[in-house]
Amino acid sequence: MALEITKKERESSQGLIRRFSKRVKQSGVLMRARKRKYKQRKKSRQLTNRAALRREEKRKEYEKMKKLGIQKKGVRRRR
User: Fold this and answer.
1) Which residues contact 24 (CB under 8 A, 6 or more apart)?
2) 74: left (phi over 0), alpha (psi -120 to 50) or beta
3) How many domains does the chain have?
4) 64 closest CA partner among 72, 75, 74
5) Confidence tier at 1 by pLDDT (50, 70, 90)
6) By Cβ atoms counted within 10 A, which residue in 8, 23, 34, 77 is the most buried?
7) For residue 74, is it within any domain?
8) In a domain? residue 76
9) Predicted model pTM
10) Looking at the predicted structure, is the pLDDT value of residue 16 above 70?
11) What is the rounded CA–CA span in Å between residue 67 and residue 33?
């Protein structure tokens, strides 16, 4: 998707640049390029499974502590 902008009669170079940058912003080319630059890779299946197991173990440990009446103080969830 190429953008073609030609200089109009009696148009200054600054006006041409302004028109070009406006057209680029409206087309969304810049946003797509930025998204592609910082694209996150998918986590591997093994990593995903390990994380799920770790969460399950933590949940069980928390429930066990809650039943015993022992709760860790100062534990905060990360965001």
Assistant:
1) 3, 30
2) left
3) 1
4) 72
5) low
6) 23
7) no
8) no
9) 0.45
10) yes
11) 52
Q: Is residue 17 part of a domain?
A: yes
Distance, CA of 66 to chain centre = 36
Domain span including residue 48: 12-69
Residue with structure tokens 């809650």? 66
**For the chain, what percent of residues have pLDDT higher than 70?**
90
In whole angstroms, what is the distance from residue 75 CA to residue 25 CA?
Answer: 45
Find, among 29, 22, 30, the residue nearest to 5 by Cα.
Answer: 22
Q: Do 78 and 72 touch, CB atoms closer than 8 A?
A: no
How much is the pLDDT for 3? Answer: 82
Crossing angle for the helix pair 29-37 and 13-27, to the nearest 10 degrees: 60
